[in-house]
Amino acid sequence: MRSCNIKIRTETDGNVSVFETEGEASFEGETATVRYADRDGRVRVEISDRVRICREGDYRLALELSQGKGNALIGFGAESGEIPVSVNACDIKISHSAIRFRAKYSLDFKEKQNMRLYFVALIKQETV
Asked: What does the alpha-carbon distance between residue 74 and residue 60 come to, in Å, rounded to a whole number?
């Protein structure tokens, strides 16, 4: 695992929020995995030709982002449910110095919730 600085910009129906933290990244072949703490939870992001976000803690989330349609699983306490997801764009770039992706998608609640997600993990240089 390598230490990294993470910046996540989320746009939900035009409202923007930015979250910055530190985490850990690992690489295996063409896949990168980033782990970080998020308030009362832990998040694991697996990036390859698609993005899979898994969160455990005060609420649970399993979201896969790749071109097309899919489902997200969201849970609070003992309750959980699936939400349809429509992914319009998902652009991924992985190098050993940075992991980046951006996605444009909608969560299809009773009303569509339009989302944009920008994620960057910059790998810290190891000092000797």
From this structure: 6
